[in-house]
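Methods — Computational structure assignment.
A single polypeptide chain was analysed. Its primary sequence is given first, followed by the predicted tertiary structure written as C-alpha cells.
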Amino acid sequence: MFHKGISSSLIFRRHTHISSFSLSDIEHGLLVDFFHHLLQRAKTLRHCQQVHGQVLLTGSDNSAFLASRLVSHYARFGLLGDAQTVFETTPVCCISNSLLWNSYLRAIFSRGKHQDTLKIYCRMRNLGVAADGYTFPLVLRACGEMGVPNLCRFVHCHVLHGGLFHNIHVANELIGMYGKLSLMEDARKVFDRMLLRSHISWNTLISGYSTNYDCVGALGIFQLMEIQGVKPNVVTWTALLSSHARCKRYLETLRFYCEMRKTGIQTNAETLAVVISVCVDSGAVDKGEIIHGYVIKGGFVDYSFVNNSLICLYGRNGDTKTARGLFLETKHKKIETWNAMISSYAESGFCEEALAVFKELEMSDQEFPNVVSWTAVINGYVSNGRGEEALDLFRKMQHARVGVVANSVTISSLLSACADFSALRAGKEIHGHLVRAVMDCSTSLVGNGLINMYAKCGSLKESDYVFKRIECKDTISWNSMIAGYGSHGRGEIALYMFSKMIECGFEPDKVTFVAVLSACSHSGLVAEGLEKFDLMMREYDIAPGIEHYSCVVDLLGRAGLLQQANEFVRSMPIEPNEHIWSSLLLSCTRYKDVDVAVEGEVVSWVSSTSLGYESTPGNYMLLSNMYAANGRWEDSAKVRVSAKLKGLKKVPGWSSIEVEKQVYTFTAGNSLATGMNEVLKSLACHMKKKKKKTEEEGQQNMQVHIYPR
C-alpha cells in the first residue's frame, strides 16, 4: 500500500491520535532530531514512508524542518505528488518557513517544471514569505530556462529589493541566467558589481561567452582573471577551450590546451572531449592520436563521451577500422556510442556499413534507434547522392516500432536530397508531413530547406510563399531566394530581392554575391553584374574568390563579350582554375570564336594537365565542336583522337520528366522509350494551356511581397 503513495489512513490517524501526546519543547526537539536521523538513513521509498508514518502518529508533522526533509526525500524518489501532499498538508504555523518553500521549489525545479517553479515563487511572495539566498538561485535558474528576458529582469528587481545582490550564490546565478539569454552585457554588469567573487563567478561568465560563441570575450575575462591573481582551474580552462572550439578557432584551442598542460593543471574528461572534438572537426588525426594516448594514460577510457569522441575522430576521418575497434571494445554501449559509429560510417561514405550497424542497434534489447540514429543514416545516403534510398528510410522511420519523430535536421537533409534530384513530388510529400506533424516551418533551417527545394524544382511561387512565412529570416533565406530567381532567368527580381535584403538590415556575404552575379549572368544583365562585383569589394570589403571571378567570366562570355572576358581572366590576381577555363571555353564554343580560345590559352589548357587538374571529356567535345563549326575538321579530329588516347569518354547527358506520377528518363542519342510520344503530346498540350494562363495573368504572379525583418 505504501509504495503507491502516502496512505490516506496515515492522514486520518494524524488527527485521531495527536491528542494522546503532550510533548515538551525538549522532547519535541529530540523527536525531530531522531526522525531527521532516520530520514538520513532511509535508503528506500518504503523506509521513507515508514518514517513519515511515525512523524504523523507522534504529531511531529508541525515541524517545518521535518516537512522540508520529507518533501526532499519524496522528490528524490520521483514522487512529486507525495512531496506536494506533504507541502500542502503542513500546518499553517509552518507556512512562513522559507526552508519548507525552498525544499518544495527545489523538488519542482529538479523535475524540469520551470513554469510551476515560478508559480510557487509567486504564491510564496503573495503570502508574504521572504525569499532568501537559497530561494533566488532556484528561481533564477527557472527564469533562465524559460528564456523570457522581461521575467528575468523582474526577478532581478526582487533580488535588489530583498538586499541579496551581494550574495555570491545569487549573483552567480544572475550571471548564468543572463548568459543563457545571450545578454552578456547584463551578465558582465552583474559580475563587475560583485564585491566578492569565487571561481564559480569567473567560470560562469567565461562559460556564458563560450555558449554565445564569443571567444574574444571569454579570453578577455580569462586574462583579467590572471591579472587579478586568481589562478584558473580546470573548469576555467575547459570553458576557454570550449569557447574557441565553438568559434572554430582550432589552432588556438590546441595551443591553449598545451599551455594548460604546462601550468600543471590536471586534465579531466570534459577537457579531453573538447580537444578531441577539435581534432575531429579540423581533421587533425595525428594530434588526436596524441590525445588518445593521454586518454589511456589518464584512465579516461571508461568515460563514454570521451570514447565516443575518439570513435568520431577516427571514423569521420576515414579510419573506420580503428573506430570499429573502439566501438567493439566498449562494454556498455549507450545510444550515443551507436550513433557515433553510425555517423562515422555515414560521413565516410560507407552507407551499407552504416545501415548494418543501424540494424544491429534495431536488434539490440538495451537501446533503440532515436532520431539522431535515423538522421545519421539518412544523411549518409543523401551525401552520397542516393536520395531515393534516403526517402525510403524516412518512410520506414515513420513506421518504426519505437515512435521516432523527425527533427529539423532530418527534414533539412531530406529536402536537400529532393532539391538535388528535382524531386518536387517527394518534396511536397515532406512539406505535407511537416504540416500534419504540426512542425514549425517558419524556423530558418526547415524554411530555408523548403525555399531551396521549391526553387531548384522550378516552383518559385511556392518558394516565395514559404519565404514570406519565415518569422526569423537569416542571410541564407535571402540567398536562397536570390539564387532561385537567378537560376530561372528572373535576374531583375533577384536584384530586387538583393536590394530589399539590404533595406531589411541584412549584411550580404560571399554566397550572396555569387547568387547575384550568377543571376545577372543568366539574365544578360552585364552592367548590373559588373556594378555588383565592384560593390562587393568597395562597400562590403569582400575579397573576390574564384567563384566570383568565374561568375564574371560567365557573365561576359554569355553576352558575347569574349575579348573582354579574356582580358578579365588575364588580369585576375589569382590563378584561374578549371571552372574559369571551362566557362571561357563554353562561351567561345557558343559564339564559334576560335581566335579568343587560342589567344586565351583555353586550347592549351584543354590538352595539358601541367596546371594540376585534368580537363573533362566534355571540354574536349566542346573544343572539337568549336573547330568543326569553323570548318577546321582536321583540328576537330585531332582533339577527339587525343581524348580517345587518354581514355576519356563523355557520359551521355540525360533528362527526366514527371508526368502523372510517373518519372520518364531519356538519354541523348537514344531512341525514345515506349510511351514517350504520348507523354510528349500530353505535355505539349499542358504547356500551351499554361502559356495562355500566364499571358492572361500578366506579371501578377511575378510580384514579390517582402516582410520587414
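Note: The chain has 39 helices and two strands.
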